[in-house]
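Why this split exists: single-chain examples teach little about how molecules sit against one another. For that reason, every record in the complexes split bundles all components of an assembly together and asks for one structure covering all of them. Below is a record exactly as it appears in the raw files.
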Amino acid sequence: MKYLNSIIFLSSLAISAIRGEVKYFSKCVKNGDFAITFDDGPSLDYSNAILDILDEYKVKATFFVNGKNCVDITTNDLAKAILKREYESGHVIGSHTFTHPFGITTLSKDELTYELNALNDALYDIIGVKPAFFRPPLGEYSEENLKVIEQCGIKANILWNLDSEDWDHNYNATQQYIDNLEGKDPYAHSFIALNHDIQKVTAETNLKIVIPYLKKLGYNLVPMDVCIGLPAYQSDYDENSNPKKIPSSNNNNNNNNNNSNGGNNGISKDGSGETVSGDPQNLNNNDNNNSNNNGTNNSNTNNNNNGNGNALPETSDANIVRNSVVLSVTIMLLMSILLL
Ligand SMILES: *[C@@H]1O[C@H](CO)[C@@H](O)[C@H](O)[C@H]1NC(C)=O
Ligand SMILES: *[C@@H]1O[C@H](CO)[C@@H](O)[C@H](O)[C@H]1NC(C)=O
Ligand SMILES: *[C@@H]1O[C@H](CO)[C@@H](O)[C@H](O)[C@H]1NC(C)=O
Ligand SMILES: *[C@@H]1O[C@H](CO)[C@@H](O)[C@H](O)[C@H]1NC(C)=O
Ligand SMILES: *[C@@H]1O[C@H](CO)[C@@H](O)[C@H](O)[C@H]1NC(C)=O
């Protein structure tokens, strides 16, 4: 029966999507929040310089680290010291796989499990926690990957909506920030920015320019747990993957949000009991009620159009997952009817 394979395939797709607890984010849940992230470290050449700059500007950021990329964190004491410094300074440590394979979609289940668990174990030895956030190398992953990632304790898959291109000498990382932020404002937008703490331009020029620039524009520079409203480490979730505590946003360098329930960060429960990220526009309307909105331009500026035809989703990312589940189930039903 020629439809049978399709049905089996679509069913497994739908079931995996329903099972999938790993949430997807490419921006912060609250308008005005801006998460600076670094991939591929630690780097013995540049990570400490970056940490110095973050200290100087009192910014908490996020490091998606590898176990054995530039340096082997299981054996190198300087690398261990960098990871400890990152963690103890209040930056968030996320997982970027152990060896940084060139994409994970071609890995077997066992290979990907190793990539996740070897890093989990190495980090546990060094900083005493295992990361709950994951960034796939190259930003590529499959539904199949998500099941494995979830089994390794990951709760959130973090992409980005601003790419500094700091690794590519054809681009000017500073100009990438300027171009991406043009026409955007903290009242209607939030960002997760991709950088690499193994890149000289990031450590030596770009951060020193863009951090003050972002602050001047009125963005709150937040670590990833605040950005997405979920705890950063596996021990802060119960056995049903529910967070034991919600990270609270300290939006005190910006008047954008000044309310008593700021700690909630827009994470809400829907009917299915699944935690979903809230609609940023609604968050904005609910959370912001101060004179600084000045009545001018706080309406639906959420229509995503970053001008390069490569738009990342600006609507609730959890909704996209849910919609794809609904679509898969619908297709399955249609196929079954066809078969009968
Ligand atoms: C990168 O862009 C910034 C902002 O336009 C500019 O100030 C800087 O000189 C540029 N850097 C290089 C190396 O071109
Ligand atoms: C924020 O709210 C607190 C408590 O309601 C209030 O004391 C404070 O003045 C508010 N700050 C701003 C900037 O509105
Ligand atoms: C928002 O501000 C307006 C004017 O200051 C006030 O009348 C209204 O009650 C506020 N709404 C909320 C939800 O705080
Ligand atoms: C009003 O808000 C806009 C951003 O929405 C900002 O550019 C402008 O400076 C604000 N004006 C005042 C007087 O605060
Ligand atoms: C809102 O902002 C857009 C661009 O950011 C501008 O073109 C428009 O005139 C503004 N509307 C008002 C009412 O200020």
